[in-house]
Amino acid sequence: MSHLIAHTQYPIQPTTTRTIHQSQNLNLDFLTFDPNGIHHHTLIYTTLSRVKEKENLYLFAPLVEANFKVDKCVSNEMQHLKTTSQWQLCVPYMQPFRKTHTIIQSLNTRSLSLHFQNIETDHNLQTSHILCLNQTKVKTKQIFTSIFKSFKIKIYCYIQKPRNHVIV
Amino acid sequence: MLLYNRSIVLDTCESVIMFGSKFIIASFNIDTHRTVHIIAIYKPPSLSLTKKLSTVQKLILKSPIFYLIIVLRDFNVDVLQKKTLEVKHLLKFMSINKMELQFQETQQYMVHNTQLNHIWSNNPSEQCVLGTKEVFWTYHKPIQFAFKLPNHVPRFPCL
After folding, report:
1. Over the stretch A90-117, which tens digit does the pLDDT of each residue have?
2. With an 8 Å Cβ cutoff, are A159 and B26 in contact?
3. A137, A155, B6, B116: which has the fewest Cβ within 10 Å?
4. Is the ipTM of this complex over 0.90?
5. Model confidence over A56-91: pLDDT tens digits?
6. Distance between CA atoms of B37 and A92, rounded to whole angstroms?
């Protein structure tokens, strides 16, 4: 007499889960996270900052900007910083000098290629005749040039790699 | 990277490697017969200044004499701490090369009671304006140096 026994085996079964609030102050080697349905904007940061290396972070959904629910106050403040406040605070400060003086500005930035949009909206920086920008993470020349071409500020020429090199 | 407004003319530009980084040194013709030479350098805190002063001197000697500006931004040498050896070396070195520190100890130019950004010039003018500003997208503060040469009216960079 023969018996037929059927058994369904799932390859992976979750053994433990933990709420975001419980995982605070933990350092995890691996993390699997579902960003869908997170209603509070600070919870995403709390979760993602638990894992030690980003290679060990597994997501159920891609982390695109639209998935982040940003507080309306933060959005409004960023918009305010990008537009109104710069005109109100910075440009009047420059007003007495911009018609009579030659202006040089110098700034140290990280990952400059990511900040072109910020420079584009920063009217304060744009009032200078010469703008020295140092970058700590240099992208390849091709990527950099293509980003700069899409840069909307056409009043500037740029030098990235001079042909002459001084050996001192 | 160096951006310059189309209202001024680039004369020469060169690159130099110092303090483990590559810097651009440029000269601009601000009118028909006057050139401004700009050297902007950053020094990381881990590297010693005194060993590299000879390199800076070579750069100064190579520069045109008329108007030289040295921008030391985030230079990690606090010139307010005058008793430290590094500052003594720097001040002595700059005075030998006839460079003057612009606007010492002004409140607008200090960050948390330190002065790590300095601008040196060989043609000090009373009509210089110096300061730091805030930007929201980086924690570094841009520094600004505005100067006016006699009988020169710059073309305002149109936005």
Report:
1. 555 656 676 778 888 888 777 777 777 7
2. yes
3. A137
4. no
5. 999 888 877 666 777 788 888 877 777 766 555 555
6. 28
A165 and B18 within 8 Å at the Cβ level: the answer is: no
Token pair 């993470």: residue = A137
Structural domain boundaries in chain B: 9-146
CB contact under 8 A, B73 and A108: yes
Per-domain boundaries in chain A: 12-69, 73-149
Q: In terms of pLDDT, which residue wins out, B32 or A150?
A: B32
The residue among A106, A86, A120, A101 whose CA lies nearest residue B144 is: A106
pLDDT digits (tens, 9 = 90+) for B40-60: 887 777 777 777 777 788 888
Helix (H, G, I), strand (E, B) or coil at B72: strand
Sheet with A156-159, strands from edge to edge, namely A156-159, B2-5, A130-135, A102-109, B143-147, B129-132
Of B26, B59, B148, the CB nearest to A168: B59
Q: What is the largest CA-CA distance in chain B?
A: 45
Domain B9-146 falls under CATH 3.60.10.10: yes
